[in-house]
Amino acid sequence: MVRIVIVLALLLGSLPAAAQTRIAALAWMGGTWVHEDARQRVTEGWIGPGNGTMLGTNLTARTDGRALFEFMRMAETPEGVSYYASPAGRAAVEFRAKEVGEARVVFENATHDFPQRVIYWKEGEVLAARIEGTLRGQERSEEWRFKRAR
Predict the structure, then answer these.
(1) What domains can be seen in the chain, in order of their start residue?
(2) Among 44, 49, 79, 106, who pairs with 99 as Cys (CB 3.0-4.6 Å)?
(3) 101-118 residue pLDDT tens
(4) Mind listing the pLDDT tens digit for each residue in 91-100?
(5) 42-62 burial by CB neighbour count: b if 16+ within 10 A, else e?
């Protein structure tokens, strides 16, 4: 009986560490990142990981005077890691991780209108991001290449 209690205590005690390990694999996304091109300046920041969560914000300032924003969160779930997107502060949409690698992560929600996939990967000092899927029957994608903010 004592042996069972000890094994259970060890297993339960290791759950938070196990949860952190999966989200901790995405620590390479941490920091503030900037993408600039002729039509916009996109600033994206990720804090964490901490206790199975990373938090993100995105501010897009367009040269036409429009500003867009999004709140993001990556969190441990019973199924794995999920990405929650809240564009313009709307209700969060969940995208579940389909691939979590050393420097690449792919989230997917096949039932969402657009995008259906959110992808991040690291190329040297660049954090790249891509959204893709089908919109009104047409394949569509957008991609950003972020440099670390100074």
Answers:
(1) 2-148 (2.40.128.20)
(2) 106
(3) 999 999 999 999 999 999
(4) 999 999 999 9
(5) bbbbbebbeebebbbebebee
